[in-house]
């Protein structure tokens, strides 16, 4: 792994390009913090990343479904405000991660049905306002 700044990259792009082509990974830093990585493209790695992303999406989809059910059940219980808040935060976090993954694979539609989930989330939010 080679660590460089954007200025290094701009100054000597061809040299760094050759390094990557020969198998090196470049980490570009700004103020000593990594901001980007450039690595050689391999079809096997790309396929593996895609499979990992799909696997994580399926796991998130199942977890989101479970949280929708929990929120629906909690919405019927009078003393569940703190649990509703916790589960709502978990749900939003999972939805955000799923959206990131979907964006990574350049899709605009989420693979899970958010309509019912959004309805349940709205009911839970209404309960919290009481």
Q: What's the gist of this structure?
A:
With 130 residues, the protein is mainly alpha-helical.
Layout of SSEs?
Elements: E1 2-5, H1 6-11, H2 13-21, E2 26-30, E3 33-38, H3 43-74, H4 81-104, H5 114-128
Parallel strand pairs: 1-2
Antiparallel strand pairs: 2-3
Helix pairs in contact: 3-4, 3-5, 4-5
Return the domain count: 2
- Which strand-content bin applies to the residues? 5-15%
Oligomer: single chain
Query: Low-confidence parts lasting 5 or more residues at pLDDT below 50?
Result: 106-113
Keywords:
single chain, 130 residues, mainly alpha, YefM-like fold, 2 domains, three-stranded mixed β-sheet, 5 helices, 12% strand
Structure description:
The chain is mainly α and 130 residues long. The chain folds into two domains: 2-38, YefM-like fold (3-Layer(aba) Sandwich); 43-128, no CATH class. The chain contains five helices and three strands. The chain has helices spanning 6-11, 13-21, 43-74, 81-104, 114-128, and strands at 2-5, 26-30, 33-38. It has a three-stranded mixed beta sheet. The termini are far apart. Residues 106-113 have low confidence and may be disordered.
């Amino acid at each position: 792994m080679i660590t460089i700044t954007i200025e290094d990259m701009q100054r000597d792009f061809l040299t760094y390009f050759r390094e990557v082509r020969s198998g090196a990974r470049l980490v570009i830093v700004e103020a000593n913090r990594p901001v980007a990585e450039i690595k050689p493209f391999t079809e096997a790695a790309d396929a593996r990343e895609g499979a990992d992303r799909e696997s994580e999406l399926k796991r998130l989809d199942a977890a989101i479904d479970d949280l929708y059910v929990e929120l629906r059940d909690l919405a019927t219980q009078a003393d569940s405000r703190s649990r509703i808040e916790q589960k709502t935060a978990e749900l939003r976090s999972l939805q955000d991660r799923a959206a990131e993954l979907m964006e990574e694979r350049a899709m605009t539609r989420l693979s899970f049905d958010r309509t019912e989930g959004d309805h349940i989330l709205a009911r839970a939010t209404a309960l919290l306002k009481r």
